[in-house]
Amino acid sequence: MDFSISSPLSGPFPAAPASKLFLNPKSQFFRSFKPRNSYLSNPLLSRRYFPIRAQVSDPAVDDGFVIDDVPHLTTFLPDLPLYPNPLQNSQAYAIVKQTFVRPEDVVAQKIVVQRDSSRGKHFRRAGPREKVYFTSEEVRACIVTCGGLCPGINTVIREIVCGLNYMYGVNDILGIQGGYRGFYSKNTLTLTPKVVNDIHKRGGTFLLTSRGGHDTQKIVDNIQDRGINQVYIIGGDGTQRGAARIFEEVEKRGLKVAVAGIPKTIDNDIAVIDKSFGFDTAVEEAQRAINAAHVEVESVENGIGIVKLMGRYSGFIAMFATLASRDVDCCLIPESPFYLEGKGGLFEFIEERLKENGHIVIVVAEGAGQEYLVQGMQGIDEKDASGNRLLLDVGLWLTQNIKDHFTKERKMAINMKYIDPTYMIRAIPSNASDNIYCTLLAQSAVHGAMAGYTGFTVGPVNSRHAYIPISHVTETQNTVKLTDRMWARLLASTNQPSFLNCDESRGGKVCTANSAGRIQSGNSSPFCLHFLSGRFMTCYLAQILDATYLF
């Protein structure tokens, strides 16, 4: 790939008039300017004032451009008829310069590239198409919500209903109550714009939810029996895996059913997309708990406040809430190992802050430190109905260990304050930012289903909404990268120890734990090696004080 000037001679841009060249008309260059020869003889000047475009010098050369496409109904039903999109007659869209997304429009997954790097993976851009594969009269849509609560679910429900009705004239919309099992227990609710008019002002889910209950055969049987041809599934990674199985069964049976997923997770651990809905609201509400803890501990002597936030495998809420607050002294997340005792440990840091400021606020994600809690406790391998591992309460454990250390070993009087706002945050309505985001997600899903796409999920990729194969958001999880700048910003903000010593002298970034995470005295120290780019961690019992982390 070479880069050439988009000039009147070499590109599609028309010749710019002299007044647009940003040149001084009294300059020597302007007086001697010749439209063609002088322009081409001074490439540095022309490069300065004209845009540069990428051109492939040899069409046979592979520039690495990849479209990771989503399935379409015509893949297994090739003879489906096409219909004009009703939006072309919409008064609201009449003022839009380009109403419909072009077939060739794609969204790049990677936007920071080098001159010679490949163009990389792209996803199909979300939005209305000029032709659709459903008429308004034939559509029978259904919406289901699964898994845990999250701010914004009701907004997504509302906007799917209103989008189908206002934009495409669809009147037959069902709400499946109680999660996946609602399909075969026949719990349904007729949804209209009037029914869902003000549900976005409430927390929770208007349609009720549950974990588990996924039976692919029963679900698709009921979809087929009820004549449903559009299925909108709102849920996390487990729910989206269920949506993928529903799509596969629909394809196997050759049914004209579009399956669209709207990813939901308050932890922001969905891969590929920029962020999940409800995350902004969660971070904003977490500020209230952090502020309360800060007020409490600064009002007493040697105050220690611990705030436990959501984050089973990913510490995004804890990290962003810490950065936004500026009142937090230490943030502990699942991706970052930490230890309590010894030089550079958490106990030493707490004592230093108490001496300096007289108080300290610690934010801990619910999935942090689970490797320490597992020792001597039963039931750590138990899972909920969604297949998620049940976590032990790291907040209570950390509170008790800090209290024991300072009162029994250090003989210091401290005032402990523990706040767990988890369920308060999950249950609130979405804020203004998330309401707008949920609207875009819902409308993008509706446009995709009407255009015949299926087996897809929707979300922003580099701030542009795209259709993404469901497998991409379920095969891995989004986690905090300890070697990224955002985590470095947090460390700079809190001045907390990283609990790692990093060395780049061996070609990559190699980080070594300062000490093993000892909880009690003895010859054997528990140590956990975190696979920082993945979801899980593997724990070992070792008589070592150092371990290597390779990024």
TrEMBL record:
Substrate binds at residues 265-267, 310-312, 366, 423-426. Signal peptide: none annotated. Its cofactor is Mg(2+). It catalyses: beta-D-fructose 6-phosphate + ATP = beta-D-fructose 1,6-bisphosphate + ADP + H(+). It holds the Pfam family PFK. It is found in: Cytoplasm. Allosterically activated by AMP. Keywords: Allosteric enzyme, ATP-binding, Cytoplasm, Glycolysis, Kinase, Magnesium, Metal-binding, Nucleotide-binding, Transferase. Its EC number is 2.7.1.11. It comes from the Eukaryota. The keyword Cytoplasm applies. The keyword Nucleotide-binding applies. Its main location: cytoplasm. Pathway: Carbohydrate degradation; glycolysis; D-glyceraldehyde 3-phosphate and glycerone phosphate from D-glucose: step 3/4. Residues 141-447 form the Phosphofructokinase domain. ATP binds at residues 148, 211-212, 236-239. It is an enzyme of class 2 (transferase). Catalyzes the phosphorylation of D-fructose 6-phosphate to fructose 1,6-bisphosphate by ATP, the first committing step of glycolysis. This is ATP-dependent 6-phosphofructokinase. It comes from Hibiscus sabdariffa. The gene is PFK.
